[in-house]
TrEMBL record:
It holds the Pfam family Pyr_redox_2. Signal peptide: none annotated. InterPro entries: FAD-bd_OxRdtase, FAD/NAD-bd_sf, FAD/NAD-binding_dom, FAD/NAD-linked_Rdtase_dimer_sf, Pyr_nucl-diS_OxRdtase_dimer. Its cofactor is FAD. The keyword Oxidoreductase applies. It is an enzyme of class 1 (oxidoreductase). Residues 3-207 form the FAD/NAD(P)-binding domain. Residues 252-351 form the Pyridine nucleotide-disulphide oxidoreductase dimerisation domain. SUPFAM superfamilies: FAD/NAD(P)-binding domain (SSF51905), FAD/NAD-linked reductases, dimerisation (C-terminal) domain (SSF55424). This is Coenzyme A disulfide reductase. The keyword Flavoprotein applies.
Length: 373
């Protein structure tokens, strides 16, 4: 039963059936909702958002019932790219329309994004970068979309994947303070009312590196925030760690991961960085079947600390190295620290110990950042 109002004076929550529940401490987790652009035709049949399992079922049923041959995906964040990949593998001609470039919202720089774009094109997906959908055309069902360039693309369906709005209506009506990206909370996930906590897609997070507010609408953030909010509501005082927005995704046969700041974000924030990329195989050279993957590391020149990483791989396991970088960033490890990283090594399970990409990338950074003169 959905909650309809919060009375902070009486410390009660009222639900849609009229029931009233008292509280000592309250935790809000109202989530987010898919953004639907205010454009002509957005309500036509065959236009979908993808936020819930019901949305996914509706998309599947539409594809099967309408025998869809062409699809447009508007937006190139994680969900948009995953949907484009999955639909294309069903033999459907997919066009991705993206305002900037694919992967920007995932925390990818242009060098990694360009590899990803080539991968999509090789798999038959068309990409219209630096475009927006200005109109969805059709009588009752979608027939085409019109782009900002004036071009029209015929399509049997449109998937809108341009972001998520935090569900903050209940919190706002209760008079809680709202930030740029969601409900404001402190380091303990308390709202402006110390007896009300919040987490998940509805709140505004603080970036660990830039210290600026950002949205954090991915599952791990919600899981960790839920645990901490619950503990603190019980009386603990546990700080929520600054956000890094790590993610991983599978697109056709490649996997991609990212964490921390990109070179582009660093430039925007005035952080002088040095980046290095290493490409290795997943097995020793003497073992057949090794697959390539590239790992990019980004270091702050001033502090010499690692502040970001991006991985693109032809296997499903190498991207978990992003979790090593997550710990390294959180623990403020430097290039020198990472040169002595000891990773488990076995011929069939890992690159050569002498080619391990984190330590070897750190060696490149060491040469650049630690001068004897």
């Amino acid at each position: 039963m959905p909650a309809t109002s919060i009375n902070r004076t009486e410390k009660t929550v009222t639900t849609a059936d009229g029931a009233v529940y008292p509280y000592d401490k309250l935790i809000l987790g109202t989530g987010g909702k898919a953004i639907v652009p205010l454009i002509h035709g957005a309500s036509l049949d065959g236009v979908f958002t993808i936020r819930t399992s019901d949305n996914a079922v509706s998309i599947r049923d539409w594809i099967n019932e309408k025998k869809v041959k062409k699809a447009v995906v508007y937006g190139a964040g994680a969900i948009g790219l995953e949907m484009a990949s999955l639909i294309a593998q069903k033999g459907i001609a997919v066009t991705i329309v993206v305002r900037s470039y694919i992967g920007r919202k995932l925390g990818l720089d242009m060098d990694v994004s360009s590899e990803l774009e080539k991968h999509f094109i090789r798999n038959g997906v068309s990409i219209r970068s630096k475009e927006v959908v200005t109109k969805i055309i059709g009588e009752t069902e979608v027939e085409a979309v019109e782009l900002s360039s004036g071009d029209k693309i015929e399509t049997d369906m449109v998937i809108l994947s341009i972001g998520v709005h935090p569900r903050i209506e209940l919190a706002a009506a209760a008079g809680l303070e709202i930030g740029e990206y969601g409900l404001e909370v402190n380091e303990y996930l308390q709202t402006s009312d110390p007896d009300i906590y919040a987490g998940g897609d509805m709140i505004e997070y603080e970036h660990l590196i830039t210290k600026k507010p950002i949205p954090g609408q991915i599952r791990p953030n919600a899981v960790i925030a839920g645990r901490i909010a619950a503990k603190n509501a019980l009386g603990y005082q546990i700080e929520f760690p600054g956000l890094l927005n790590s993610f991983a995704i599978k697109l056709f046969s490649k996997t991609v991961a990212s964490i921390g700041v990109t070179e582009a974000i660093a430039e925007e924030e005035g952080i002088d960085v040095f980046a290095t990329t290493k490409t290795v195989k997943t097995k020793y050279a003497m073992i057949e079947g090794g697959k390539p993957y590239s790992l990019k590391l980004i270091f702050d020149r001033k502090t010499k600390r690692v502040v970001g990483s991006q991985i693109i791989a032809d296997d499903e396991h190498s991207i978990k190295s992003i979790d090593v970088i997550a710990i390294a960033i959180r623990c403020k490890l430097t290039a020198l620290d990472l040169t002595t990283l000891r990773c488990a090594s076995q011929p069939e399970l890992s690159p050569e110990a002498s080619a391990e990409p984190i330590s070897m990338g750190a060696e490149d950074a060491f040469k650049e950042l630690y001068s004897l003169t």
